[in-house]
Specification:
Rossmann fold; UDP-N-acetylmuramoyl-L-alanine:D-glutamate ligase; Protein-Tyrosine Phosphatase, Chain A; 3 domains; six-stranded mixed β-sheet; 17 helices; 35% helix
């Protein structure tokens, strides 16, 4: 068994594979972080860093691949050509647990929804683990813990290498163009990847989906979903699932054929801890997932009211001389930024830019025209952003550090403005990751 990539996912997979009796070798083209090296050495697992020894890797019976490694990598092409099985950590770990899985994906909102679902189950006293794109490695938890439930955030990259895995509860929040560079710039391939969340499901499993998402509706018209389908909507009343009517959310259990139909849960959107239209969707999806695994409605209601949002997602940082600073560094695509701008009620100084992933900024034009006073670019190449918005925003400045971006925003800002870091781009041109970008932004704000 060869594991490619020695981050959280790869190291956890290696430890589980060793426990299950595999002969394990870990290979990472980059330097391995110290905390993962320590874990591998403590287990006596052979590894290499800064190189891939192809003779050894190409001889493997099976490969567990880090989700960050693209299909176009030469080594992956060679492995595919010789038909070596390649699986994700989720696929591998799923073989060794009988726990119920709630699997959450979508282009936007999946981390918030995953954390909220986990919060509800924890509050209900469930023996539950958190994994996938957030929390600890799923494989490591399967090796070392004995959870009855897992709430897993799954990216399209993780879904791509899942084959036999089956989610007990699958959640698909939305589909908008993202990561198209990994899908030959073909949106239909990305859509198909997201719908792998329902693979292998039968009528005994559940699929929670956004009934307002036209991309999903079109796909489901032409592709049958075997699971029991549970919709949610903020646009029109439904007869089952969750829906918004004026300012009231209703959660109905009528999709549960094997359980008595109880009184619906109702609450107003003003009671939600997470505000903004996108968070109504997230709250509905998490609530439905919790009801499917029999969490009591009162626990769901309390959890929706006391949940604290994740770092780097519309996170209030500080107010300096009447200018509010908000860290939304996790917004790495246009659609995430659309949600952020849509939730703003003050004039916005928008910090954006970074590594473009094939972005179409036209989707933001109306919001930018109506809400953005100035744009502060934070990236190596800002030409696409400047070209997109030069006719609708008078002030556009370029910066290449978080400190300069904050300083420029503060100079431009007036009392009553909001400075919003919501990049719409990946961070890798100037930062290690979106967390690093968010932390540098927060440090710069606090230094004002």
């Amino acid at each position: 068994m060869v594991i490619l990539g020695a981050g959280e996912s790869g190291t956890g997979s290696a430890i589980l594979a060793l426990q299950k009796g595999y002969d394990v070798f870990v290979s990472d083209l980059s330097p391995i972080a110290e905390k993962y090296r320590i874990q591998l050495e403590a287990e006596g697992i052979a590894y290499e860093q800064g190189q891939h020894t192809e003779s050894l890797i190409l001889n493997a019976d099976e490969i567990i691949k880090s989700p960050g490694i693209p299909e176009k990598a030469p080594l992956i092409k060679k492995l595919r050509a010789q038909k070596t099985p390649i699986v994700s950590e989720i696929e591998f770990a799923g073989r060794y647990t009988q726990a119920k899985t709630i699997c959450i994906t979508g282009s936007n909102g999946k981390t918030t929804t995953t954390m909220l679902t986990y919060h509800i189950l924890k509050k209900a006293g469930y023996n539950v683990g958190l994994g996938g794109n957030v929390g600890k490695s799923f494989a490591l938890q399967v090796a070392r813990d004995n959870y009855d439930y897992y709430v897993l955030e799954l990216s399209s990259f993780q879904l791509d290498d899942m084959h036999a895995f089956k989610a007990d509860v699958a959640v698909l929040l939305n589909i908008t163009p993202d990561h198209l560079d990994r899908y030959e710039y073909k949106f239909e391939k990305y859509i198909a990847s997201k719908f792998r969340i329902v693979q292998n499901q039968t009528a005994e499993q559940y699929f929670i989906y956004n009934a307002d998402d036209t991309v999903m509706a079109d796909y489901m018209t032409n592709h049958h979903v075997n699971a029991t389908c549970v919709p949610f909507s903020i646009k029109s009343p439904l007869t089952t699932g969750a829906w918004l009517n004026e300012n009231q959310i209703t959660l109905s259990d009528s999709y549960r054929n094997n359980k008595p139909n109880q009184q619906p849960l109702t609450m107003t959107i003003e009671q939600l801890a997470l505000q903004g239209k996108h968070n109504v969707y997230n709250s509905m999806a998490a609530s439905l997932a919790a009801r499917i695994v029999d969490v009591r409605k009162e626990i769901i209601r309390e959890s929706l009211q006391d949940f604290q949002n994740i770092e780097h997602r519309l996170e209030f940082v500080a107010s300096v001389n009447g200018i509010e600073f908000i860290n939304d560094s996790k917004a790495t695509n246009v659609n995430s930024t659309w949600y952020a701008l849509e939730s703003m009620e003050k004039p916005v100084i928008w910090i954006c830019g970074g590594q473009d992933k094939g972005n179409n900024y036209e989707e933001l034009l109306d919001l930018v025209k109506g809400r953005v006073r100035a744009i502060v670019c934070l990236g190596k190449d800002n030409s696409k952003i400047i070209e997109a918005f030069k006719d609708v925003v008078d002030t556009i400045v370029e910066t290449d550090t978080a400190a300069d971006a904050v300083a420029a925003s503060y100079r431009i800002g007036k009392k009553g403005d909001a400075v919003l870091l919501s990049p719409a781009c990946a961070s890798f041109d100037l930062f290690k990751n979106y967390e690093d970008r968010g932390m540098q932004f927060k440090a710069a704000v606090r230094a004002l």
